[in-house]
Write a structure and sequence with these properties.
It is a single chain. The C terminus is likely disordered. It contains eight helices and no strands. With 179 residues, the chain is mainly alpha-helical. Helix 2 runs antiparallel to helix 3, helix 2 packs across helix 6 and helix 5 packs antiparallel against helix 6. Helices cover 69% and strands 0% of the residues. The protein starts with 13 loop residues before the first helix and ends with a helix.
């Protein structure tokens, strides 16, 4: 699909504006504030009571509804890529799992913030998915592939979405060698 740019930016020069668009999305488009709350505060609290997977799925649904005003007011729909809400719900929930996976394995809120800003820039600001029924196939493929990525993360990392602790692995290896 064609790339959509803010009014006044020449279509053929989108690559020159990409870093600026990314920074605008990073600081003003939600990732910084949202991920500090969703991943930096709420996720650790929920992980005390449930698996990281369950917590991130729960956060993803709430997070999608957090964006509901963008779907109620038509003039705001471009901020979410102009996609129907049900698709946004599916994508946001899957992103929540992937962002949680990044967060728990890096213990850095910066990584999910950058991941979030990249998604907002490409899918939202640049409109890679585009709006309208003619692009539903692209949207369906993107959603499916994102959920496949979630499935692979769960398959390889388990429901805590966490890689094995290298220190624990080293200790287990030494213990097995002694036996």
């Amino acid at each position: 699909p064609g790339i959509t740019l803010p009014a006044g930016l020449p279509q053929e020069a989108w690559i020159r504006f990409l870093p600026v668009l990314f920074l605008i999305n990073l600081f003003m488009g939600g990732p910084l504030a949202e991920d500090i709350g969703w991943r930096g505060y709420i996720l650790p609290k929920l992980r005390e009571r449930m698996s990281t997977l369950t917590a991130s799925l729960f956060i993803g649904v709430i997070w999608a509804f957090w964006h509901l005003p963008f779907f109620i007011f038509p003039e705001w729909s471009l901020l979410t890529g102009g996609i129907p809400f049900i698709w946004f719900l599916l994508l946001t929930t899957s992103w929540s799992v992937l962002f949680a996976w990044v967060y728990v394995n890096t213990q850095s809120i910066l990584m999910p913030v950058l991941f979030h800003a990249a998604i907002n820039t490409t899918l939202g600001t640049l409109g890679i998915l585009g709006a309208g029924s003619e692009n539903l196939l692209l949207l369906a493929i993107n959603t499916l592939l994102t959920w496949v990525a979630v499935g692979l993360v769960v398959l390889f990392f388990g429901t805590d979405l966490r890689r094995a602790d290298p220190i624990s692995l080293g200790q287990k290896t030494r213990h097995v060698q002694r036996l």
